[in-house]
Structure formats: structure tokens, C-alpha cells
Amino acid sequence: MVGLDEGALTCDFAETYHVYSWRSLPPSTAATLAAGLGPDSRIMQKISGAPAAVNTLLLAMIADSLRILVWQKTKDGARGKNPPESILEKLYAAQGRTPKAGFDTPEDFMAWRASMMEG
Q1: Is the pLDDT of residue 116 over 90?
Q2: What is the Cα–Cα distance from 57 to 48, expressed in whole angstroms?
Q3: SS3 of 86-119
Q4: Torsion of CA 42, 43, 47, 53, to 10 degrees
Q5: Which of 21, 42, 77, 92 is surrounded by the fewest CB atoms within 10 Å?
Q6: Does residue 119 register a pLDDT over 60?
Q7: Radius of gyration over every alpha carbon of the chain, rounded to an integer in angstroms
Q8: Are 57 and 88 in contact (CB under 8 A)?
Q9: Helices within 18-53 (DSSP H only)
Q10: Would you call 37 helix, strand, or coil by DSSP?
């Protein structure tokens, strides 16, 4: 974690545990506290490659779905023209990635699920 982003780890320790100098802790204590950081902590997001917190991603998906539903009720929507831009795609594009819309096989899904469960 330190090698990946020491600043994020320091910030997470300060925010979560009110520890402003994690290097002053015994290594085993620092490791235990680091392992206890939540999935929305900066370092865990960086490890998982998530562009934002899980709640933010879910809100973006909800907003995108609502925008599509509203757009479908318009003349443009009936003709399939000028669809609204996806907020979720913009979050991923900021990292140079695209969100995965589906899986080709059950094995692909299980591999993705396993990678999300690590961390």
C-alpha cells in the first residue's frame, strides 16, 4: 500500500483512525489498521482501480438510467437520436477506461467477481 500511494494511505489513516503519523506505529499495528480500511478508502479504491466510491458509482448508474427513461419519452428518443451522455462512462473515461457492460461467459463474470472481492 505504501508503494502504491503513501499519501492516500496517510490520509486514510488520519481520516479513519485519527492517526497522523502511521510510521510511528509498530509495523504490525500499522498493517492491521491498513487491512481494516474500508472499500471506499482512497487506498482501497486505488488498489481496486475504481474511479470513485461505490456509492458514487451506484448514483451515477441510477442517474444514467433515469436520463435514458426520460430521453426515451422525447421525439429524439423515439428516433434513437441524441442519447444523453453517461455519467458513469465519464467517471471511467477520466481514468482512461470504459465500464464493462456485460460478460461473454460465466467464467468471465466469476473472474471479475473474484477480483472485486479481493481488497
Answers
A1: no
A2: 14
A3: CHHHHHHHCCCCCCCCCCCCHHHHHHHHHHHHCC
A4: -20
A5: 21
A6: no
A7: 19
A8: yes
A9: 27-35, 42-48
A10: coil
